[in-house]
């Protein structure tokens, strides 16, 4: 009975990142669509609902953009033929998971906008908290929207500003100055590639270079994948522009006092890939540190430390290194779960979690296990995994979480459910331990978050209820669907 109830909610028991962005400009005039494809493939963990690519020829007629976008994973949406048809030496790509705006084909990105100065294509990661106001501003002046996503609001504001200023990068800066919330965006204009990161630096954004190509993308893992070198991070509040001569110009007009910045700490804990780094901190190192802190703050005697893949693995290794308890592999994960995968029915004997994750019985039977995971949201998945370890013969299961308990919503692009649905809401650690059936339970202490990233200013709002900027007073999610 408990398992059936758990199965009902299991599909919603994972947190999702909103999006990943990838932009490239090849100054030698080579086609870039296939490179964008591989870049997006490396960013697939940031969004699995839809994806798209838009390209243009910088020497061709101004305003001619070829694009394709659809629902599904990168390798489901694109094939060699579709990529072949996308001709252009400048382009942007996007992978999406919807936290605001419906999950439909129209809302897939990049967003392509034709206006009097030519064509803009834009890809956006993050969530604006004043998107409704910005949208109403435009609607009162006659704009008609095709989608329900923030990105279209951003694109319209850029287009409107472009009519008042001399360059597209000035227009991006002026539009960005009006936006409140989290955004890392890449914009393709007919002859320039532009990146902008919000002043708080909620979401990562970096610049790379491969031969005579320049890249602006969400994570460094995408640079590694395409064989590009990391040039630098886009700074919080910065607008960077790459022109046809390969010059990178920077505008810091929108920057704020660095002490007030607020990088999403959950990028380091869970969202970003372990082989990425941003703002000088390696995601892998941050996770190892979290594991070490857990071993220091919540020690327990055991025979084996295991991680729940993928993001629990590095923290588990950190715990093992600090405690001296051996690190092992208890789970085998099947990652080939695409959008079209048929979820098991409640009545069927196959369970969602088991379809994705299996326990290696030989590794855990008869042992006291420390299981490290990155978070407990509603608790349904954690309960099932603890149960699976016990069924496989584990003598004890001690759960350690490389984040503090989730207690508050996120307004900046993470789909944390309503407070009442969070397992930690109004419950003690002992209550949670009991609910998930663990022998002991320990969370990362809040004070450790900043230490994880060597003192970088961070957002930890979903754990503390205090955000880098005042949250909206109304529910900003899904208004356009109502
Ligand atoms: S509230 Fe949490 S998930 Fe949202 S940006 Fe802040 S740290 Fe990240």
TrEMBL record:
Protein name (Swiss-Prot/TrEMBL): Amidophosphoribosyltransferase
One family name in Pfam for this protein: GATase_7
Residues annotated to bind [4Fe-4S] cluster: 264, 410, 459, 462
A single GO molecular function term of this UniProt record: magnesium ion binding
This protein's encoding gene: purF
Residues at the catalytic site: 19
Organism whose genome encodes this protein: Eubacterium ramulus ATCC 29099
EC numbers, comma separated: 2.4.2.14
Species classification: Bacteria, Bacillati, Bacillota, Clostridia, Eubacteriales
Catalytic reaction list: 5-phospho-beta-D-ribosylamine + L-glutamate + diphosphate = 5-phospho-alpha-D-ribose 1-diphosphate + L-glutamine + H2O
InterPro entries per UniProt: GATase_2_dom, Ntn_hydrolases_N, PRTase-like, PRTase_dom, PurF, PurF_N
GO biological process assignments: 'de novo' IMP biosynthetic process; purine nucleobase biosynthetic process
Chain ranges of the Glutamine amidotransferase type-2 domain: 19-245
Keywords: 4Fe-4S, Glutamine amidotransferase, Glycosyltransferase, Iron, Iron-sulfur, Magnesium, Metal-binding, Purine biosynthesis, Transferase
Stated family: In the C-terminal section; belongs to the purine/pyrimidine phosphoribosyltransferase family.
């Amino acid at each position: 009975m408990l398992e059936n109830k758990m199965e009902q909610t299991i599909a919603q028991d994972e947190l999702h990142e909103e999006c990943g962005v990838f932009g490239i400009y090849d100054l030698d005039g080579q086609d870039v669509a296939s490179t964008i494809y591989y870049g997006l493939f490396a960013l697939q963990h940031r969004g699995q609902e839809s994806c798209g690519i838009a390209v243009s020829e910088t020497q061709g007629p101004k305003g001619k953009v070829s694009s394709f976008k659809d629902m599904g994973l990168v390798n489901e949406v694109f094939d060699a033929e579709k990529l072949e048809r996308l001709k252009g030496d400048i382009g942007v790509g996007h992978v999406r998971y919807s936290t605001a705006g419906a999950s439909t084909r129209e809302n897939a990105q990049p967003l392509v906008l034709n206006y009097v100065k030519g064509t803009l294509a834009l890809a956006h990661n993050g969530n604006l908290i004043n998107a409704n106001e910005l949208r109403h501003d435009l609607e009162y002046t006659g704009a008609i929207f095709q989608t329900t996503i923030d990105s279209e609001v951003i694109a319209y504001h850029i287009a409107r500003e472009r009519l008042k200023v001399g360059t597209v990068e000035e227009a991006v800066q002026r539009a960005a100055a009006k936006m409140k919330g989290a955004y890392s965006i890449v914009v393709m204009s007919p002859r320039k590639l532009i990146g902008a990161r919000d002043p708080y630096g909620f979401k990562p954004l970096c610049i790379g270079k491969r031969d005579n190509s320049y890249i602006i993308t969400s994570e460094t893992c995408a640079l590694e994948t395409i064989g590009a070198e990391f040039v630098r991070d886009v700074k919080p509040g910065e607008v960077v522009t790459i022109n046809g001569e390969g010059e990178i110009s920077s505008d810091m007009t929108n920057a704020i006092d660095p002490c007030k910045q607020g990088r999403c700490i959950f990028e380091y804990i869970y969202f970003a890939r372990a082989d990425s780094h941003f703002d000088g901190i390696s995601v892998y190192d941050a996770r190892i540190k979290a594991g070490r802190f857990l071993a220091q703050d919540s020690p327990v005697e055991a025979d084996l430390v295991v991680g729940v893949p993928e993001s629990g693995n590095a923290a588990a290794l950190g715990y093992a290194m600090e405690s001296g308890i051996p690190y092992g592999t208890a789970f085998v994960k099947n990652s080939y779960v695409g959008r079209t995968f048929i979820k098991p029915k409640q009545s069927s004997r196959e369970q969602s979690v088991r379809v994705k994750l299996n326990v290696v019985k030989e590794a855990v039977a008869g042992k006291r296990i420390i299981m490290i995971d990155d978070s407990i949201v509603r608790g349904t998945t954690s309960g099932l995994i603890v149960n699976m370890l016990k069924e496989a013969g584990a003598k004890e299961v001690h759960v350690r979480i490389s984040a503090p308990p989730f207690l508050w919503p996120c307004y900046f692009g993470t789909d944390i459910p309503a407070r009442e649905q969070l397992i930690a809401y109004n419950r003690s650690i002992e209550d949670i331990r009991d609910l998930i059936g663990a022998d002991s339970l320990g969370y990362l202490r809040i004070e450790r978050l900043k230490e994880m990233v060597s003192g970088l200013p961070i957002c930890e709002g979903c754990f503390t209820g205090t955000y880098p900027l005042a949250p909206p007073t109304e529910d900003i999610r899904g208004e356009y669907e109502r």
